[in-house]
Design goal:
Number of helices: 27
Shape: globular
Number of strands: 40
Distance between the termini: 36 Å
Largest sheet: 8 strands, mixed
Structural class: alpha/beta
Radius of gyration: 33 Å
Strand order of the largest sheet: 1-2-3-4-5-6-8-7
Helix content: 25-40%
Length: 940
Amino acid sequence: MQTSADRQDRHEYPAHWEADVVLRDGGTARIRPITVDDADRLVSFYEQVSDESKYYRFFAPYPRLSAKDVHRFTHHDFVDRVGLAATIGGEFIATVRYDRIGTDGMPASAPADEAEVAFLVQDAHQGRGVASALLEHIAAVARERDIRRFAAEVLPANTKMIKVFTDAGYTQKRSFEDGVVRLEFDLEPTDRSLAVQRAREQRAEGRSVRRLLVPGSVAVVGVGRTPGGVGRSILGNIRDAGYPGRLHAVNKAFPEDLEEVDGVPAYRSVRDIEGHVDLAVVAVPAEHVPAVVAECGEHGVQGLVVLSAGYAESGPEGRERQRVLVRHARAYGMRIIGPNAFGIINTAQDVRLNASLAPEMPRPGRIGLFAQSGAIGIALLSRLHRRGGGVTGVTGVSTFVSAGNRADVSGNDVLQYWYDDPGTDVVLMYLESIGNPRKFTRLARRTAAAKPLVVVQGTGAAPQGHAVRATRLPHATVSALLRQVGVIRVDTITELVDAGLLLARQPLPAGPRVSILGNSESLGVLTYDRCLAEGLRPARPLDLTTAATAEDFHRALARALADETNDAVVVTAIPAIGEGSPGDAELAQALRSAAAAVPGKPVLVVHVELGGLAEALSAAASTAPQAVDKAPTGVTGADDAPTAVTAEPPPEGTHLIPAYPAAERAVRALAEAVKYGQWRREAADPGKVPEYDDIDEKAAARLIGELLERGEGLTIPADETCELLGAYGIDVRRACPAPTPDAAAEAARALGYPVALKATAPHLRHRADLGGVRLDLADEEQLRRAYAELTELFGAPEELRPVVQAMAPRGVDTVVRAVIDPAAGAVLSFGLAGAASQLLDDMAHRLIPVTDREATSLVRSIRTAPLLFGWRGSTPVDTPALEELLLRVSRLVDDHPEVVAVTLEPVVVAPHGVSVLDATVRLAPPPARDDLGPRTLPAY
């Protein structure tokens, strides 16, 4: 009979400790607490561990666990004694446990804050990063239970385990005594431990996607017995693309004597396939998918692409079916693309995988492409593939992923893969939703520092089937934050392809100076105007006239590229009529040879084609340009999408020259490249988060703790607001309540004239335009007169809530806000105060913590920023003091996540100094920060 001492009754089972993790090789495992029900699993696990590993764990031969050992290792109170297991297919592959100890090294309870920790990993799974993942999770559990330090004793020969501890990045001490290495390390995350964790995350998640995109063998499950159908189409697409690996067709309805389908070996079950299968493409009805997943998991399949529909996109029942699918696949260590996916493509010469519904393989190239819906994927592939609407030569697709409902593998995972994929130079993503914005911005910042990342972000509600974290931020704010981390944010598929083509095969411009040349004066002027509209600095267009030859273009382009006052060149070209007019191939070769001589500057072509008129002229006169029924060789692209200038397929590494059918599209793409190039240069030196000696972090923390004891989620009173902000060196001008004229006069005498009288009722607060503010009241007579006017206009004092405040120096009224968004994280916002700025939504935003360089750019990012710098002869204001205020607010919110909202309005920026006239602060228990915890996959 089980006694009360046997029961795990110190705490309920901590289900929130359960997590799926990606291991070093890209496989997955589940981590969960060990319970009394795991005795048989523990014994079975231990029997599969080698004698050497057992010796390293117990420092002596230990062939089997006794009943007492099994009891000890499966009975935990989840406080002082905790055990976690990593499982695959429900079976243990590794365990870790800690036991709280006192200063004497004996078992203890709180307030003792040290614990001994020990691991055991099955030999077959050593080297997969299981112990490192378990260490992250057991450390997070320990911190939750107020344990601040781990101690571990390891035999010197157990170098693998010593490396697990030493590589984790924690602050540690190491000693050697009695033949044992003793390691002690603090569990507080450090910059190094977070960097180690994120580097491991990148490698693991990148490899998990690589296992899907570079499989050595593929099984298509659901291949029909007759032509047609999704499964049969996928099989044909893989075969026709020239996939060099082993390919298998699977359908449980195949006759037992069927050996091949379309020349591909046929099987009734994945279990029947001899040898391993890396990837299974599943195209069966949703109700049959669970059986397929079980077959694949038992056969050791590494990953699934699930094309089947009928999941979360179909409603609550489908959503639950999707949860079961993900849990089932992860239990076997498999990752999933889909369900409801369009498929995946890898054009690499040694892979040539088209496991998608696209009937043709895209041209191979250097662009990574991600879309969520199949319809968007089709549109993107079509534009990038067709002759008149895409990329020619080597500027094609490297890999393509359509994630469907993205129940498991998401855009974040694919970004991890593309970050260090040598075959991808540019990343294009169409995101209908962002499931984890905080992580996406972190990964985007790192990716954009290495290669361009162009994103179309959906503006509406998330599609059915997408798990999306709620955000309170407007779409425009999220877009601004994406730009802050280096994302090239565009609005349409056309702009996505336009920018991608330019960035894939042209160098980044060093600045905004643009040279324009061509054989059409009007087209040159149009291009010039568009450059001005996009914030570029164009030189006056050079008109070569319609009589220009290919040699004329070559000389003009060569001169423009050699000119140090130019950062980019736009060539405008229209078809010319006459025997001396250059042909398309001749013009393309002239432009390409000139560009090759000065390869450091981007070149774009605006090529206007006359279409039917060209054909008519060709039929009417031999001197007319040759008719073209395709985008001409050299300047390809006549319809609606950009292409690349190339007479013959150039050698690898040659810069193709993109051509656009409209000036505005070419210039918009160039403007995005200019802004991205500027971001890259600034990202090399992002600045620092300054330290301020007068900040009292402990005093602020103490006050926040006292205030939160009053209840969850409160806007704190004015006095406590001033005290909290004052701990961070932010002074708020005192405002004295004035419920009567006499109280107003008394407050004014205490503050000293001149004063301001303000109504603070919610409908009048910060609304000077409504007349609820009286300024520069020089004496008591003026104050009493103003008081009477306000009460006559707006009602009794109890409705107005008037206050008296000492006058601040004249300046520009601004507003500073900070908010912690549950999805995006902490955001700092700045703008000018007043109705005009609100109407225009003229606010700039930065992710917290803000560096000194980011604070400087934040002040200058709003459209009304000239008002701060002496617009129309006004006196410039003290922007360095304003930037310091922004940095102090950023520090406050970053140091204390319980501060979930701060508003300083108005902040008067004078020629010397700033004055905060009003402030509100809201406190709440901080939202969960999964980006600071151990690595996990999204919960299902």
